[in-house]
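Comment thread on ticket #2218

A.B. wrote:
> Attaching the input chain for the structure job we discussed in standup.
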Amino acid sequence: QVYLKESGGGLVRAGGSLRLSCTASGDTICLGTMKWYRQAPGKERELVALHGVGTATDYADSVKGRFSISRDNDKKMLYLQMNRLKPEDTAVYYCNADTLGWCGLGTDYWGQGTRVTVPS
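C.D. wrote:
> Ran it. Output below, let me know if you need it in another format.
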C-alpha cells in the first residue's frame, strides 16, 4: 500500500505563489508516476501536472509556464510550485500515484486533498 498526504494549501491573493507538498509513505519503493489533480467547486477533477519516475513532466495547458512539478525520490516527496495564481486556480488539489507493475499494488492512490483559494 501507498499512502499520500498533501499539505501547503491556503488562501493567497491573485498573482501570488504557493508550494504544495505531497508526502508518500508505505511501500514507497513501488512509486511510479505521480500526479497533481485538482477539483474546483462544481467541476470534474482534472489533471494539473505529472512527474514520471525519472525526469519526465507534463502540464495542463492552463498551468503551463506558471506551475512547476518536482519530485524528491529520496525524501518520498512530490511538490507543486504554483506561481502567478489566478482565481480560476481555486480548487482542492490532490496528490495521486501509480505503482510500478512488478510490485503488484495496483494504481490510483490518492491523498485527502489540500484546498487552495485565490479570491477574485
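A.B. wrote:
> Thanks. Noting for the ticket: The chain has a mean pLDDT of 96.
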